[in-house]
Amino acid sequence: MFLRIAEVDDQTILKVQDLSLSFGGIRALVEVRLEVHSGELFSVIGPNGAGKTSLLNCISGRYMPASGRLLFAGRDITRLAPNRRAAVGIGRTFQNLALFNHMTVLENIMVGRHHLLRSNFLSGSVFWGTGARREELEHRRKVEEIVDFLEIQHIRKAVAGTLSYGLRKRVELARAMALEPKLILLDEPMAGMNLEEKEDMARYIVDLNQEWGLTVMMIEHDMGVVMDISHRVMVLDFGRKIAEGTPAEVLANEVVKKAYLGEEDDLLADASA
Q1: At which of 180, 213, 231 does a domain end?
Q2: What range defines the domain where residue 53 resides?
Q3: I need a surface site. Which of 73, 142, 149, 153 has the fewest CB within 10 A?
């Protein structure tokens, strides 16, 4: 329904090498290896508790892995602070919304551009005598482009906490886009949405990849959407990678079928229909 093949570069933008993560005696990730190519829409799936969000947390810097390496655009970012990862080009959304509920939609999106601001406190204090005003207008123009793309013009001045769940999800995506990332990490962007909202979000993600040229790494439980819009899919189970390939290859994998058996077997059947 949504599939439009984007131009995928052979260049690897993200490389995960033997990544392991533990919480006490629980091994959340076990020597996970993967590569995401520039321009790709790469999805990570797996049963509940498979380690999907833990993987994204390691990539974004929220968690520090016990071992292994993370390379982004050829640079080792394994020990890089989360704010520095945003600066080098990694943006993300969260499974649980992380908006500033007391701020307007526009203010939330502007927060996403904080690392792009060049004017400091001193230059800001003499706003009209410097390029700070010009910079502010340019950032607002970029924000308005995102607002138009996500079709949220009608709520741009609304307080975020008053919006419906689906609209807040869209605002969080807008804030991640405002970072101007090279790679955007989406953690269950369609969770809790109705069918119409899911269709809209899937369309935005495809256009984000296709028209805006962003590399996307996504976690999503809606197997139909994942198999419809992804270039490649990786499957985690109990913190280990058990499969990787095109959607068709993953659907046909017997190990994947066993991992989902009894929990989401019907979803796999629906996705292959």
Answers
A1: 180
A2: 1-89+182-273
A3: 153
